[in-house]
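A.,

Following up on our hallway conversation. Structure tokens first:
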């Protein structure tokens, strides 16, 4: 398994003949210099945002819900309709997050199986 440094450009290329992934930056063997899981997840998220249309759509919608939830939570005295909207948005946001995680998991599985 390979990862790239934080300074790496976030563009990946796939060698279809071997199934190997490479970046335009220097690659390191996983065993040589372990990368934190958090940084690895952030790199995967950045990659998917740049290269997966469905993931990007879900992330955009997730962000819209987040913004609206922030607006609702800042209301000093939300009415019943706003409270219901807040509950619904929280559930929808969680569903989007689950769908995004499913895409990331599918991608991780396909990368490690090659």
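Then the amino acids I'd put at each of the 114 positions:
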């Amino acid at each position: 398994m390979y990862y790239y440094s934080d300074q790496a450009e976030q563009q990946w290329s796939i060698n279809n003949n071997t199934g190997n992934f490479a970046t335009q930056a220097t690659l390191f063997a996983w065993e040589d210099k372990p990368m934190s899981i958090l940084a690895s997840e952030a790199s995967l998220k950045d990659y998917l945002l740049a290269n997966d249309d469905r993931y990007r759509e879900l992330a955009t919608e997730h962000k819209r819900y987040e913004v609206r939830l922030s607006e609702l939570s800042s209301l000093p005295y939300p009415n019943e309709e706003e409270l219901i909207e807040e509950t619904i948005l929280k559930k929808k946001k969680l569903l989007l997050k689950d769908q995004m995680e499913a895409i990331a998991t599918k991608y991780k599985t396909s990368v490690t199986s090659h």
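The helical segments are 37-51, 53-73, 80-112. Curious whether your intuition agrees with the design.

B.
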